[in-house]
Structures are given as structure tokens and as C-alpha cells.
Amino acid sequence: MMTNQTHDFTLAEATARVRIDELAPVSRFSLRVRPAQAATLGRALGLDLPDRIGRIAEAQGRTALCLGPDEWLICAPEAARDAIVAAARKAYEATPHSLTEISDREISYRISGPAAQELLTIACPRDLDLLAPGCAVRTVFDTVQVVLWRDGPQDFRLDVWRSFAPHVRALLEIGQAELAAGL
């Protein structure tokens, strides 16, 4: 005899409170440059490099996130990849830096809806009330290093290394189901 377990909730109920979507690929770069030269290199790349950790700057469809005193994450449409590489190469002699393409290393999930913040708290130790919309931070989700973006009050992005994505997605889906069940 086989046991069959049923639940009182549906996937539709789970996604009504919080939605998890994998986002389309983008060009990503890890940029290291001395803070004194950040403004010069930013102009060469077509955007201001923010000077405070967690701050974001956007221009021409490109986004720069300050991850550390001399470290930025640059995201742009895939079509902008070659232009960014060419601009960095041209600026290198006057402004030494390290620009490494990491596009294939990560994927991004959008977590949105009225229970998005609650879902993220299942495995993120950060106080998300302190993460203002329009900011992002490097943190952990369970034991996985991630970049967490807060795009709006109920709208987050989670950049995850591709090798850890199945683990993170599974945790998010378990949490989503638990929220729908009222656990």
C-alpha cells in the first residue's frame, strides 16, 4: 500500500504572494581600480562609479554597483559587451585597472511580491529592512555568496554563481511553498 500526501495549497496561491523568475542573461564584469582613478575610468565606461559600498549608478543601460572600496560590478545588455571591453582597453594605459568578464559565472533570479522579503529571510542573515530600494550588497543565502539587489519595496534580484543556482532555487521554492501553506 502506498501513501499519498496532498496539500491544501496550489502553485497559484504560492506565486500570488511571491514570485521567483530567472532573468535573461546580461554582460557582467568585475572591475578593480584605485578609488582615486574611479571617476576617470567610469567616464571611459560611460557611467559614474559610485563611491559608497552598496550604491548603484545607472547610465546608457549600464549599471555599476560598488562592492568594495576598489571593486565594482558592472552589468549591461549583452550587446554592450564589446564596447565596454574596448573602452576599458583604451583607458588602461592612463588608468590601470582590472576588468574581468564574469557573464557566464552567474545567473539572476527576480523575487517579487508582497512576501518577497519574507521569503529571502529564510536563508539570508542580513536585515533586509536596512537595504533601501536602489541599493545592493554582497551577502550569503544559506551558505552561498550572492549579490542581493533591492529594486523596489517588494522587488529583489539575487545574483548567484551558476554552480550554486540549483541549490538556491530549490530553497526559494521550498520557502515559497511554505509561505503559501502558512507555515
Compile the SSE list and pairings:
Blueprint: H1 11-17, E1 19-22, E2 27-32, H2 38-45, E3 56-59, E4 62-68, E5 71-76, H3 81-91, E6 98-101, E7 106-112, H4 116-120, E8 135-141, E9 144-152, E10 155-161, H5 165-181
Antiparallel strand pairs: 1-7, 2-5, 2-6, 3-4, 4-5, 7-10, 8-9, 9-10
CATH class of the largest domain: Alpha Beta
Order of helices and strands: HEEHEEEHEEHEEEH
Radius of gyration: 19 Å
Sheet with most strands: strand arrangement: 1-7-10-9-8
Helix share bin: 25-40%
Overall structural domain count = 2
> What sort of overall outline do the alpha carbons produce when their principal axes are compared?
elongated
CATH topology of the largest domain: Gyrase A, domain 2
Main sheet: strands, sense, barrel: 5 strands, antiparallel
Number of helices: 5
Mean pLDDT: 92
- In CATH, what is the homologous superfamily of the largest domain? Probable tRNA modification gtpase trme, domain 1
Structural category is alpha+beta
As a percent range, the share of strand residues is: 25-35%
Task: Let me know the number of strands.
Answer: 10
Question: From the coordinates shown, what is the CATH architecture of the largest domain?
Answer: 2-Layer Sandwich
- End-to-end Cα distance, whole Å, is 29 Å
Which consecutive residue ranges, at least 5 long each, have pLDDT under 50? none
